[in-house]
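Continuing the batch. This is chain 6 of the set; chains 1 through 5 are on the previous pages. Same settings as before, nothing changed between runs. Recording input and output for traceability.
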Amino acid sequence: MNQIRRPLDVAILEALAYSDIFDYPLSLDELHRYLPVPASRADLAPALANLRGRVAERDGYYFLSNRDEIVDIRQARAAASAKPFARAMQIGRILGRLPFVRMVGLTGSLATLNLSKNPDLDFMLVASRERVWTARALSLLVGRWARLLGNTLCPNLIISETALEWPLRDLYSARELCQMIPVAGMDVYHRLRVANSWTSEFLPNAIEPPVIVLPEVALLEVSQTSEVWGARLLRGKLGDRLELWEMNRKVARLSSQPGFGEETVFNAEVCQGNFHHHRKWTREAYEERLADLGIVELNSFLIQPSLTSRHCERLLRSNPLHSQQIASSGRAPSSQ
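Output for chain 6:
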């Protein structure tokens, strides 16, 4: 997609409208980061001045006018998120030591210190080739331990290191990827960002990983012994058979859950269990806010075709449960 250069004031309204969905006012740095057009920080001051009456500021946060209560909401949620965030960093580091886990990223509301209810720890994992479901099973064992500490671990997205490129390109995916906090496997994280450089079409200023300002987290020392021995035991034909067995039984179970559909993907390279259709309701809420602002936006949430025919055929072959659905909708399954 060619970058559509819109007036900066409209771009500011769009960025604030998206964050307003989550009651999340933006600092000046965050506003710059999530603008849908290229701009410098110096460009923001005159544009914000032009938007007086439509955009307000309080305590260093910017938001749509008549929504100043979300500043209090963000500050309260940030305070409530500090302890779960520290716990997530510790657990994420443990996940990063599991056999076949190449990268761990913290996602969801906790990645932005914006917990609104239960402190679920949402993670994205990148797994070794042909070990997505083994990595998932091992991460769920860590989840049982985390539950004893009062946390619910949710590895909502696990992908193979051979499938780093997002199959669906839209604003939702771009925001999720650019907001993710890398916890372990920085080399693979950088490969992930390079493979998805298309995010710059939606968020051209969000190049570097996000910065979270918190007191330093005391990380647990994690032994590499289990990682090494586990990988040795589960390599080869035995590991291949266990991987296939785990995938087949879990796909059968997960595909029968309520909410299975467009935003769920289960195959040899991807395990994505978004049963709550976050993309759909986010898009609807975003379009509603843009309409209230008098903005007719045709491209900010546009689904972009990103699959070559060969890649699409490979996904369909590995995920027959989606073949009929994709063929009828003309779209690839969502990846966030």
